[in-house]
Amino acid sequence: MSKFENVTVLKEANIYYDGKVTSRTVEFSDGSIKSLGIMLPGEYTFNTADKEIMEMMSGELDIKLPGEEWKTLHTPETFEVPANTSFDLKIKTVTDYCCSYVK
Q1: With the CA atoms of 63, 68, 72 and 73 taken in that order, what torsion angle do they form, in degrees rounded to the nearest 10?
Q2: Cβ atoms of residues 54 and 73 within 8 Å
Q3: Is the entire prediction scored with pTM above 0.85?
Q4: For the stretch 10-48, what's the b/e string if a residue is b when 16 or more beta carbons lie within 10 angstroms of its beta carbon?
Q5: What's the pLDDT at 55?
Q6: How many CA atoms lie within 13 A of 58 on its CB side?
Q7: Which residues contact residue 57 at a Cβ distance below 8 angstroms, ignoring those fewer than 6 apart?
Q8: How many domains is the chain partitioned into structurally?
Q9: Is the pLDDT of residue 1 over 90?
Q10: Which domain does 85 fall in, by range?
Q11: Which of 7, 35, 37, 84 is the one with CA 20 to 30 A from 1?
Q12: CB atoms within 10 A of CB 69
């Protein structure tokens, strides 16, 4: 899906790592939440509360999921992160992403 309709976008940005990772929260009428963001090259660790499904729209990165080895992903790729865990990213090129949160 390249376009979301009938959604609410929160005005305030989510800003991480001194602005190197930013996103906007999108709320759907069914209560589901996604975020649309950009990650600049660098190394980052993120913690999750909910399960996350990350869809790469553009970019290249290395990812280390819990209990796994590092692997390289290229656009278009999608990966899942279990709830209540953390994961590591090495962003190689500017990466555009859509993250879906699964309750």
Answers
A1: -70
A2: no
A3: yes
A4: eeeeeeeeeeebbbebbeeeeeeebbbbbbbeeebebeb
A5: 97
A6: 7
A7: 75, 76, 96, 97, 98
A8: 1
A9: no
A10: 7-102
A11: 84
A12: 6
Q: What is the 3-state secondary structure (H, E, C) of 5-50?
A: CCEEECCCCEEEHHHCEEEEEEEECCCCEEEEEEECCEEEEEECCC
Burial of 1 (0-12, 13-18, 19+ CB in 10 A): exposed
* Token pair 């970019």: residue: 59
CB neighbour class for 64 (10 Å; exposed up to 12, middle 13-18, buried from 19) = middle
Position 2 in a domain: no
Which of 32, 39, 44, 4 shows the shortest CA–CA distance to 100?
Answer: 32
Tokens, residue 10: 């929160």
Residue linked to tokens 């080895």? 69
Q: Which residue has the tokens 């709320």?
A: 27
Q: Tell me what the pLDDT averaged over the chain comes to.
A: 96
